[in-house]
Amino acid sequence: MTVPASPIAPHRIPLRITAAALALAACVGAAAAHSYKVADIAIGHIWASPPAPGADGVAVYVPILNRGKDAVTLVGVATPVAASAGFRREKDGTVTALETIEIPSMKPVSLAAWREHIWLSGLTRPLEVGDGFPLTLDFGAAGSVEVEVEVEAEGQQH
User: Fold this and answer.
1) Domain span including residue 36
2) Which side of the chain, N or C, has fewer Cβ within a 10 Å radius?
3) Domain of 52: which CATH number?
4) Which residues, including other chains, have CB under 8 Å from residue 132's CB and lie 6 or more apart?
5) Which of 121, 129, 126 is nearest to 150 (CA)?
6) 3-state secondary structure string across the chain
7) 73-125 pLDDT, tens digit each
8) Is the dihedral of CA 43, 127, 134, 144 positive or negative?
9) Beta strand 132-138 pairing with 41-43
10) Is 3 within a domain?
11) Contact at 8 Å (CB) between 61 and 23?
């Protein structure tokens, strides 16, 4: 079967897909599968990889999109599966604890291994692939929301 040629010349069709547009699409797509919302903040699929053998800590990752006109700040996290929960950044082998994470307006942010993310330490129970646990995200004045974190093998996220 032959498809007729388009009457529009290919060079006239603007095709600009930026990294931000792709990240936004990923956030929205992930959000549709397993999502949460608080105020103007869309929270996509939230997951953690299982802790390494003998480790008592685990990183939690999530895409977030603030659809509001002003930046918001993720000021805290809490979960019953860890003695402490907070934020950190790993860069060039150096770990830095963070007090908060800013979520700018209309710019998707992925809390990920290569940038800011949530860190849980002092695990109160073993976590394995297939497990889930509650986590409360506190966005200060914008509100808080309880989400369900899925423990997944790396590369298996939805």
Assistant:
1) 10-151
2) N
3) 2.60.40.1890
4) 148, 149, 150, 151
5) 129
6) CCCCCCCCCHHHCCCCCCHHHHHHHHHHHHHHHCCEEECCEEECCCEECCCCCCCCEEEEEEEEEECCCCCEEECEEECCCEEEEEEEEEECCEEEEECCEEECECCCEEECCCCEEEEEEEECCCCCCCCEEEEEEECHHHCEEEEEEEECCCCCCC
7) 999 999 999 999 999 998 888 999 999 999 999 999 999 999 999 999 999 99
8) negative
9) unpaired
10) no
11) no
Domains identified in the chain, total number: 1
Which bin fits 32, alpha (ψ -120 to 50), beta or left (φ > 0)?
Answer: alpha
Domain membership of residue 116 (yes or no) is yes
> For the chain, what's the residue count?
158
Contacts of 69 (CB under 8 A, 6+ apart): 105
The pair of three-digit structure tokens given for residue 85, joined into one six-digit string = 């929960």
